[in-house]
Amino acid sequence: MVILNWNGASFLSRFLPGVLAHADGARVIVADNASTDDSAEVLSRDFPQVEMMLLERNFGFCEGYNQALAQVDSEFFVLLNSDVEVTLGWLRPLRALLEANPRIAAVQPKILAASDPTYFEYAGAGGGYLDRLAYPFCRGRLFDTLEKDHAQYDDPRPVAWASGACLLVRRSAWQALSGLEPAFFAHMEEIDFCWRLQNAGHEVWYHGGSAVHHVGGGTLPKTNPRKTYLNFRNGLALLYKNAAPGELLWAMCQRLVLDGVAGLKFLASGEFGNFWAVLRAHFSFYGSFGYWRQRRRAARPHLRVAQRAGVYNGSLVWAYFARGKRKFSELGLR
C-alpha cells in the first residue's frame, strides 16, 4: 500500500493506525511529495514500522505516484489517499478478485463519506461511470448529489473507472501503460488510466463487499479555482486522448459548448475565480495541443468504439439539469 503524502501530517496521524491494523500482511509505504509540514517527523516518531520514501520535490499526484511505484516490487499495489479510513477486512476481497481473474487490472471498494458513512462519498462512491461526452459520475453520486447507502450497490461489477482515492492495481498493467498521465498533475487521472486500461483490453471493477471512508477535498476543496481549472483542462484532455475516431469530433464540439455554459454560470453567480479557471483550462489545453496530439497518436492502435463497461449513452448534463434525474437508478442503468 502506497500513500502519497503532501503536507498531510494530520491525516497520517489520524488514519495510519487503522491502515496498519488492517494491512492484512501488506507493506505500508508513505511516499512524501516534498512536504513542508512535519510529516517526516510524525512518521519517524509515531510510525517507525511504515516505510518512508522521500521524493525530491512535489511531483503532484500523477508523477508522484509514478515516481514512487517505480520503486515498488509487488504483483499488486494499492494507491491510497492519506485521508482514507480503511475498515476491517477491506483489502482481502479486492485482492481475491484480481487473483481470480487475470483480465481485471484495477478495482476499487465502496467509498463512503468519513463525515457520515451512511452516505456515499463524491470521489468514487459505488464505482465510476462516464456519459457519452466523458462526464464522470458514480453509482451513488450524480454531480454533487450523494445517495444514502442502503446496500443497493454492493454487487461487484465492471465499471468505466475506479477511484484513485483507494485503487488496487495489477503491477504488470500499470507498467505496460506507464502509470498515470503526468501532464494531468492531479484530478481525473484515474479516469484516464482506467480508460486506457479498457482500450488495452483490461477490465476495471468495483467491489461493494469492501468499504472505506474518505474525507475528500483534503488537498483542494471542491470550490477551489485550482481544482476547477484542473478538472476542466483534464476533462478536455481525457476525451481527446481516449475517444475513438468515430466519436471524438461531435463529443468535443458538445463539450466546448457545455464548458462555455458552465463558465457563464460561474460568471453569473459571481464566482469570478472559477470563471477564469475555465478560461485558463481551455487556453492551457489549446496551448499544449501538440503534446496531447502526440499522446493520442501513441494510443491510436487501441482506440475503438467497442462497448466499454460503465458507459451511459445519454447526456448526464441533460438528464440531471433538464430532466431532474438525481439518482443513478433513474438513468436506466443497472
UniProtKB/TrEMBL annotation:
Top EC group: transferase
Keywords: Glycosyltransferase, Transferase
Domain Glycosyltransferase 2-like: 2-108
Cited Pfam families: Glycos_transf_2
Xref: InterPro entries: Glyco_trans_2-like (IPR001173), Nucleotide-diphossugar_trans (IPR029044)
UniProt EC number: 2.4.-.-
MF annotations from Gene Ontology: glycosyltransferase activity
UniProt record similarity statement: Belongs to the glycosyltransferase 2 family.
Protein's name according to its UniProt entry: Glycosyltransferase family 2 protein
Source organism of the structure: Hymenobacter mellowenesis
